[in-house]
Design brief:
By secondary structure, the protein is mostly helical. It has 2 domains: about 1-100, no CATH class; about 105-145, no CATH class. The protein has 6 helices and 2 strands, in the order ββαααααα. The protein has helices at about 30-40, 40-50, 50-70, 80-90, 105-115, 120-130, and strands at about 1-5, 10-15. It has a two-stranded antiparallel ribbon with strand order 1-2. A hairpin with a 2-residue loop joins strand 1 and strand 2 (about 10-15). Helix 1 runs antiparallel to helix 3 and helix 5 runs antiparallel to helix 6. About 0% of the residues are buried.
Length: about 140
Amino acid sequence: MLDTLCMSNCFCNFCAGSFVMQTSLLAHHEANAAEQRASLSKQDRFSYGTHFETFHAYMSMVVSSASAANPPGWDGLIRDRNLLTVFTRALLRRRPSRQYVNAPLRYTVYHALFKVCPLAIRDHLIVRFAALPRYSRVGQPKQAS
């Protein structure tokens, strides 16, 4: 999901998925998961096996962390000063840079590795970085990571 803001000749793409702890992006996760579950065909349920429930259980933990970071009554304002500074620079500079980054150092290192590693290593790093539950076809054992 990208929200785009345009001022003069400056286009800013803000990837809210990178800031799930500071946005309401996952606010309705349980309702969305229930809707997805209800729409699965018998074949889909068979194909995904237990992965659907495993994935949404994982996402529920992420939602719980985000809810703790943004308690009820949260006003929706982003409090990350670094993010606000980067965003303000992008909008107000006469000649903005092509790219601004607001990420912990380890994310910067990961992204640098993604650019230079062979595809097989990059895929492995992305799987490790995302830490999502692994999918395996029904009847096949999950591979250890």
